[in-house]
Every structure is written in structure tokens, then in C-alpha cells.
Write a structure and sequence with these properties.
The protein is mostly helical. The protein has six helices and no strands. The protein has one domain. The longest helix is centred in the middle third of the chain and has 24 residues.
Length: 105
Amino acid sequence: MELSARVILQGLAANGILVRDAIEAGTTNAAWRNMSAAWKGIEAGIQGFCAEAGLTSDQLLALAGGRPQLVESAGRALHGTARADRECKKATWQRLSQAWEVGNQ
């Protein structure tokens, strides 16, 4: 997750978007929106899996050492109108479900 946060922050920077500007001014561009949609898709996949498994996302993330502060910071810089990418959501849910099944065997 921390690596994902770094990728998004670097993507914003590469497109000339300061995180501060992205948050405060609502700066928009296609790359930022696409990265935000992927991020939101991953989060939606995690939430879907957690609901199905009877866990909270905090409980799941605690298994991996918790949610890094960088992830929290990057999450606040997401594009406001980006919708969760369905493919990212599905792929995340599938991977978590498969790992869960293996862990319960």
C-alpha cells in the first residue's frame, strides 16, 4: 500500500500537481483522475472483501502492519470526481478472496 501511495504522489508530481494544490484547488487532469480511479477501485475491492469476510478494513490492514501514514496522506489527494475502477475493484477482491481461502484451508 505504501508503494501505491508513493506511485500516486509521484504521478501527481510528474504532472506538475502538488499534493497541496490537488487538495486545495481541486486541480484536475486525466492522469490524476485515472490514478485516483485505480486507487478507489482497490479500496472498494478491499471493502467488498471485508464485508463478505466479516472484517473491518482496519482489522484486515492490521494483519499487514496497519495503514501507513503515507497512504492516509495520499488518500486525501485523490481526484474528487473519480469513480472506482471496476477492474481494479474486481481484481483486488479476487486476490483477497483467494488468499483468504488458502489461509483457511
